[in-house]
Amino acid sequence: MSSSSASSSSHMKIYDVFTSFHGADVRQGFLSHLHTHFESKAITTFNDQGMERGQTIKPELDKAIRESRVLIVVFSKDYASSSWCLDELVEIFNCKEAQGQTVIPIFYKVDPSDVKKQRGDFGRAFEKTCEEKSEKVKQTWSRVLADVATIAGEHSLNWPNEAEMIQKIATNVLEKLNDTPSSDFEDKVGLEAHLRNLYSLLDLESDDMKMIGIWGPAGIGKTTIAEALYSQLSSRFKLKCFMENLKDSYKSTESKFSLQSQLLSKILNQKDMRVYHLGAIKARLQDQRVLIVLDDVDDLNQLEVLAKELSWFGPGSRIIVTTEDKQILKAHEIHNIYHVDFPSKEEALEMLCRSAFKQRSVLDGFEELANKVAEFCGYLPLGLSVVGSSLRGQSKHEWELQLSRIETSLDRKTENILRVGYDRLLKEDKSLFLHIACFFNNDNVDHVSSLLADSGLDVRNGLKTLADKSLMQTNGSTTMHYLLQQLGRQIVFEQSGEPGKRQFLVEVEDIRDVLANETGTGSVIGISLDTSKIGNDDTFSVGKRAFEEMRNLQFLKIYRDWFGGRDTLQIPEDMEYLPRLRLLSWDSYPRKSLPPRFQADRLVELDMQSSKLEKLWEGIQRLPNLKSIDLNRSHCLKEIPNLLNATNLETFNLEYCSSLVELPSSIRNLHKLKKLKMDGCKKLRDIPTNINLASLEEVEMRDCYQLRSFPDFSMNIRKLRIGGTKIEEIPSSIRNLHKLELLVMHNCQMLRVIPTNINLASLEVFSVNCCSRLASFPDISSNITKLDLGNTKIKDVPTSVVRCWSRLKWLDIGSRSLKRLTHVPPSVRVLHANGCVSLKRVCCSFSNETKRLSFYNCIQLDEESRRRIIQQSIQGEILLPGKEIPAEFTHKATGKSITIPLASGTFSASSRFKACILLSPIEKCLSQDISCRLRSKGDGTIHSVSTAAWLSNMPSWSKHLFIFSGDLFPQQNRCHEVDVTISEITFEFSCQRKHGTVDSCDDKIIECGVEIMTEEAEGSSREHATTTTTQVKRKRKRKTEKGLKTKSWVGKLGFKTCILGPRIRVAVAAKWKSLKLEVAAENRHEGTITTTQMDTERKTKKQKVSR
């Protein structure tokens, strides 16, 4: 959809009817009566009163013809005597051909054949008018008269009186208006969905007065949506008005009267109405049902003048307001607001194609280019329309040449529209807009607020203002549309012809010029350089005094967005000065330390990832504002400076600083520190102890291979990850960590001792996976929900755990030393016992809500344990060693597919199946995805089920059985129709191996088996009591003669079966009433029973319940 500025090419239908006539013949009589009837049916007609007629069609008349949905031509005796009328007729005919407008001819006291052949009195008038015209004009008029005269219309001589004819014409016009929607908007992508949403807000069936808002950024298509809505609704309202382009219309007190005068003139169809007081709209419209669209409102005063209160209008009225500023709507207490969002990628591409190629899809060979152009336009409909039009008819080479220009600069038309919103901002909000556009787009709101804390800007309220005015979005982050970002950068570019005198520098060439020639000034407050845009062969020298004159520089960001180009910016070894920055972010910083004259007292964030730093600076710096340090992957870093004064530091990232040996004792002063990340500091040995950082909640010290001491930093810690260290024991002081929620110590191969008889009330997740020397079960908290003991020496699950650990949901007990599994808490939903090579007996049972039982590579399991595991009735999947499909699976086949015959009455919509596949040994992988596709005879897919076997990243040492269950039919809806004629179902199994990549391994499926289950109809929905197909057949033989077989009823009465939950209700045709029977199929496994039997069973059940 195009914006308001681009919509002039599409002619919105303002009027229902335009009438072409010869005034002297019909105006005072027939036409006045016709218009009165139109008015009574709320049909809007174009009123030409006051227009001075001349020899050519005036632009106003031409516009009115194009903006009318139905065009009526009243042929009278002297119609052809007016060249004005004949020119009108040509324009009407052209509109009919070009836009499909409806034309209705009315032959008033003139014969249609005389009009068609230009004969009789009509013909003589025509010939006289043509005397001074060229032969070409005469032929055009003659042809159009002949064409229009053949269109079905009304002939006055066929009616006994004019009143009846006029009534018929008015009714006919109204029907055409209602039945024929406007075609002006047929090519508007996504419009239909917008209109559906707006109809629900308008609630047109209600007699309440309603005011709704359509809100969105410039160029998003608000005006187009409003025009389409108005076009569809206008025939329902007697009085309607579209006030277009109200932007900047309120400038003085006089403009209040002018606005009210315009609205009343339009809605009452009276030219130049004068207003002498501001109560005029209420006085004239308070009892009238009206439709008013106020388009492009940018000032609250406009609403106060045109629609101050709903009481100004009559019952059933609808007022629609479009605006870029949400705050205007809220201030006017408009609560029903529709936000016009950006189109999807697919919709945006179609918009571009309609504009560039005049078709819905991309021309062959232009796919990649079209996608890039749509992306550069930010999916903004206005941009897509304007840019697409400029590329129409261009070759692929010309498209490629245009791409770089589109990426870096705005089309002037687009810029003018977008800039209006910026120009209306207050000075402080303009400054914030430029900060976001040039430096902080797609950034965290808290982060932006922190960095701009001393800028003098009210960041929180400013961001809200920009969001309300559709100049950005704030949903936890600052999100500015690409074209608005380009607008902001264009505004900064226009600040000066010299880059060093602009506020922000973001283009490589501008930054190169300033740093090489040392031309920066105090105007520069931010530099953002993407080094990937510097060619490897390009020279990019930096003067040693490059930053000396940029004393006000606050934000310096040097990064590499893409692979390619340079990885960083090289600077002279003798550079001594950097300004007093608030943000210093420099990827791959090339020197061993920061310049010696750098002062960090204003620094809020220091981000030097992948740097060559060995240390930051000498001595102690004042760091009162510093909140974040990120030295991630600075492999050469050996020393952390004294952080005594960094009392506001909140995050400290030292991950993979592989040369770092110790953490300084000065961290004991970091009482606002929340997160400490030191994963991969493989030389780290010494850390401070016996300190309590009040705010510290999260510590990560995984793979610090030399670390032996348990980090004792804070009693308030919530998450502690210290896997891959040389820690030998967890100290008893851990009992003081009352807020600890997560403790991960996997791969601590020296760990032997865990304190006992403590209960960390908050601990929910505990992992000691691959702690190969740990032999005792960690009785550390009874509130744990996830416990990972895989690859340890633990031999059993104590009975105390079964008794007290009522919250445990996920348990990995994969120990090579485990021989028996006799106790598992009933709350467990996932059990992994993978790799328990010594496990022989499993004596415990599992809840029917269990999601997974995995006994992968438990090769010593005895037959009784295998049988017990296989027969567990659980929701999820089971994995265990096996050699063949168990006997419980009544249908078996070799390979990956099996076809099962289905007898009528043995299944329903809620039927389930249980499947088993035998897998040959597989290579090392993390998991295998198993899927099952169900097909009916004739290759009709019924359903598909997917699940996964978790293999703990180890190869299998034997064949394995994988058992899972699923629904026989999709269960998306509560009521499903099942084809009772299905005679067989084919189950097709497939398998994919996941280990970094996804590979098909269907050849690993040796055998497969399936069992069809039927749920007890009156049982609990979660009991999963099942009956096999064989059992169903046996029970059928025991049915009484009173029972009715479903199949025979289907044959006699011809009904279809509809299943609601576990119960089959039978809907029967008219024959059912005559038989006066009521059949309901209860207890699907028992077949169909009579109404008497069903009532008897229900009474028995009620008596049992009451007892």
From TrEMBL:
UniProt enzyme class: hydrolase
Region (Disordered): 1017-1043, 1088-1107
Pfam families found in the cross-reference section: C-JID (PF20160), LRR_3 (PF07725), NB-ARC (PF00931), TIR (PF01582), WHD_ROQ1 (PF23282)
GO MF annotations in UniProt: NAD+ nucleosidase activity, cyclic ADP-ribose generating
Domain called TIR: residue spans: 13-177
Annotated EC: 3.2.2.6
Name by which UniProt lists this protein: ADP-ribosyl cyclase/cyclic ADP-ribose hydrolase
Source species taxonomy: Eukaryota, Viridiplantae, Streptophyta, Embryophyta, Tracheophyta
